[in-house]
Amino acid sequence: MAYDKFTTLTSTAVPLPIENVDTDQIIPARFLKATTRDGFGDNLFRDWRYNGDNTPKEDFILNNPIYTGKILVGGKNFGSGSSREHAAWAVYDYGFRCVVSSFFADIFKNNCLNIGVLPVQISPEFADEIFEAIYADPKTELEINLEAQTITLLSSGTQESFDINGYKKGNMLNGFDDIDYLQSMKSEIETFTESRPF
């Protein structure tokens, strides 16, 4: 399944400065029965977003209309817990294309990279600066440049570099998943196959 190409993203951001957000909080286990990737965004942070009668909880950040954007800024150790890939699906399906944190659980990070969500790990100090800037002005924008591997807080010009696996970076720049990548090499694979004596 091809995804949107990710080159440079400039967007406002939604702040969620909660540490140790695990995958069961991101998408509760009772919503994991579906076999396609659609519809998970409706239940992103379901138990934090809604009361038992399905009315929105006014104090949860995703229900506050002043905070919007394609970037979610999370607290330290985002995506911990079980390895369910549905958590990354929910983040993508909700509309986020980038999650920023001072630390990610490895499996969640890789699941995001597999479906077109860019996890950007920054220093705790820069995370604090970003949170403060967003709370001071919800229209604050971040610029994520994947090619240069930089994240910039545009209001102050503060910038940091981030790491990403070269293979995953190439896939995101091209909008590829693993199958798309193999298909892009089809002619090379066929040429190699034809050169084999067996």
UniProtKB/TrEMBL annotation:
<comment type="function">
    <text>Catalyzes the isomerization between 2-isopropylmalate and 3-isopropylmalate, via the formation of 2-isopropylmaleate.</text>
</comment>
<feature type="domain" description="Aconitase A/isopropylmalate dehydratase small subunit swivel">
    <location>
        <begin position="5"/>
        <end position="124"/>
    </location>
</feature>
<comment type="similarity">
    <text>Belongs to the LeuD family. LeuD type 1 subfamily.</text>
</comment>
<keyword id="KW-0028">Amino-acid biosynthesis</keyword>
<protein>
    <recommendedName>
        <fullName>3-isopropylmalate dehydratase</fullName>
        <ecNumber>4.2.1.33</ecNumber>
    </recommendedName>
</protein>
<dbReference type="InterPro" id="IPR015928">
    <property type="entry name" value="Aconitase/3IPM_dehydase_swvl"/>
</dbReference>
<dbReference type="InterPro" id="IPR004431">
    <property type="entry name" value="3-IsopropMal_deHydase_ssu"/>
</dbReference>
<dbReference type="InterPro" id="IPR033940">
    <property type="entry name" value="IPMI_Swivel"/>
</dbReference>
<keyword id="KW-0456">Lyase</keyword>
<dbReference type="Pfam" id="PF00694">
    <property type="entry name" value="Aconitase_C"/>
</dbReference>
<comment type="subunit">
    <text>Heterodimer of LeuC and LeuD.</text>
</comment>
<dbReference type="InterPro" id="IPR000573">
    <property type="entry name" value="AconitaseA/IPMdHydase_ssu_swvl"/>
</dbReference>
<keyword id="KW-0432">Leucine biosynthesis</keyword>
<keyword id="KW-0100">Branched-chain amino acid biosynthesis</keyword>
<dbReference type="InterPro" id="IPR050075">
    <property type="entry name" value="LeuD"/>
</dbReference>
<comment type="pathway">
    <text>Amino-acid biosynthesis; L-leucine biosynthesis; L-leucine from 3-methyl-2-oxobutanoate: step 2/4.</text>
</comment>
